[in-house]
Each structure stands twice: as structure tokens, then as C-alpha cells.
Amino acid sequence: MKLDTAKLITIIADDAIENKIIEDLKSVSVKGYTITEARGEGLNSIHNSSWEGKSIRIESLVSESKAEKIIEIMTDKYLDKYAMIVFSSDVKVVRRERFN
Amino acid sequence: MEIAEALLSNLRTPMFLAFFLGIFATLIKSDLKFPDGMYTGLTIYLLLAIGLKGGVKLSNTTIEEFYKPALAAILLCITIPVIAYVILTRLGKYDMVNAAALAAHYGSVSAVTFSEALAFMDSQHITYEGFMPSMLAIMEVPAIIIAIFIVKSKSGEDSDSWKKVLHELFAGKGTLLLLGGLMIGLLSGKKGLEQFGPLFDTPFRGVLILFLLEVGIVTGRRLSDLKKAGVFLIGFGIIFPIMCSFFALLLAKIAGLSLGGASILATLAASASYIAAPSAIRIALPEASPAYYLTAALAITFPFNISIGIPLYLSMAKIIYGA
Question: What pTM does this model have?
């Protein structure tokens, strides 16, 4: 089986801005994403109950250049204002053409 | 001592005791937790119930009876956030964003505090106008918009984010259920009440107890934030509502509301939202810290209102109305 490299972008953020983030991803032609619920603590937030809002993890498989672009957008638009974590990791995928 | 009696009887209601149980559960580190779905379900039920019943009552109201109190309500929900903002920035030395977030909460209203006020009036056999839930609906959103506007106009943000905020406010489930329920109740009238009464009218107080238990749990978790909130905010969370209630009572008298109606309007003015406002603020003013606005609304003002506030506002109303 031939596996190619790709990038996995992970964004952990408040679910209040879920739609904004998805719009941003689509604006750089990201074809798909997966959202899971998350909870935890950070430097800014202490509890994560349904009152303070849930956290979500958005993941998407993208090319390296898209990964950089996404991180740039998240940094410009959200990192200063919202509690958010964004990082990219290396993965190996099949059908790499689907993630460009 | 009438007011002390009223106060004590208020503290012994199952609703308040459930709230206290929630706080107690947190203090002894119980693992009691409401599943997220249940919280959402309870909120949907409560808001829809308030809207539906309010709508039915509204269908029996004439415009003449309604327009002056409605104007009073509008005046209140516009001025309260502005006054709050000024006090918080000038006296409290809060920054623009946190002051605006707090102003949004205090200018808006709490449906649960409202329900408590109705229950209290009933227990004291004080009648009130049937259209009071419409006052609740009116006063929910405008203050939040004004508070956000204060911030956005100063920082000059794009109109795009405005659209999102307004969408969140008007299409958000709080407003939709309240106004939608009102419409349904209004249009279906008495016949409608016969059909939904057994679910939305009779069990209402019982469901409120469940909800207050959850609120107590969340409030208990926030108690440690009281230290961060500081003495000024604690004082503000008690004194500002009393000021608002007084202002509301004067307006209520001018608008021709009954003693009960005035007390409820006063409670609305004194209440701070912790359902509608926080979700709007999380999107519009993310830099604002929940340690201030949520703590103030939940851990200071709400407990004050449902324990001492409501009986106090009734007593103040009695003095102003010379009853």
C-alpha cells in the first residue's frame, strides 16, 4: 500500500465560533473536516460546563501549504481574542489527492 | 415584621431550597452533574412554557392596557445597560469590554427570576397583569445589542460580525422560544391552553425546581470566582439591581401597572440574564471574562434576587403605591 504524507490540522476552540472557523476553512478550499466534542482546562478557561460553552476539536487533512495558511488565519483572527489552540501534525494517508 | 415574614417564606420554597441544594452539592464535591442534553431540554421547556402561557394571557389584553407598560419596559431595558456601563467604567474602573459584557447581562432579564417572582406574588395572593411575560420578552434582547454596540462602535469593527451577533440574538433559541411561544399562545388562545396546559402549565413549577438545582450546581462552581470578582462587583451586583427596581417601580406607577405588575417589572429590571446574555457575549465579546459577568449574574445577583430581592421589591412597591 502506498502511503503519502499530508498534514492534520487540529483546532480546539469554543463551540460559539464553530461556524466562523468552518467558513474560514472553506475560504481556503478545505474539502472536509471532522468535529468532536472536547473539554478541558487552559490558561484562560477554568471550567467547561454547558453554561460556559463547550469546546470542540475540528480536524482536517490538508496539504502543507494549506496547513500554513490555516494556522495563519487562525492566528490573525482568533488567537488573541478567543481561547483556541491550533497545531498541525504529520500524517500518512491513502488517496492523498482527496486532501489537496 | 411583614417583610421578614415574606423573606422567610420565600426561603422555604422548594425552588430556592433546590437552588441551595445545588450549591451545597458543589461544596461537598458531589459528583452530581446534569447531562448537557438535560440542561438544553429544561431550557427549551421553560422558555417555551413562559412564552405560551404569556401569549394566551396576551390574547386577552387590549392595546390600551398594554402600551404604557410596554413603553416602560422598553425605556428600562435601554437605559439600564447604559447606566451600568457608565458606573462600571467610571466607578468600577472596568475596561470597556468587561463593562459592556456586564451591562448586557444587567440590562437583560432572567426568565427564572421572573418565574420566581410570579410564584412569590401568587404565594402572597397579589394579583398582577396577565401580560407580564410579554414584558419579559421585550426586555430580553435590546440591552445586549446596546452593550455590544457600545464596544463595537468604539473599536470600529466590520458590519459582518454585527450580522452574526444579531443573528445569534434573534435566531438564538432563547429569543425564538420566548417570542415564538408568545405568538403560538396569542394565536391559539384559550383553546390552545386547554391543549398544552397539562404539559406546560401544571408541571411548570416542578420543572423549575430541576432547573434551579442545575443553576445551583453551576453557581456553586463559580463561588471561588467571587474572590476574583472583588468587593466592587459584589456590591454592584446587589446595589445596582435595587436601584433599577426603584426606577422601575416609579415607571410602573406612571404606566398604571398594578402593585403586583409593578413588583414584577421591578424584578425584571433588577434581574441579570445568565442564559441569553452569556451566549451572545461569548460570540460578540470573547475577550470579556466570564469570571466577571457570569459570576456577577449567577453567584451574586441571582441568589440575591430570589432570596431577598423579590420580597424587597414587593415591599418597596407597597410603600410607593401606599398600600
Answer: 0.86
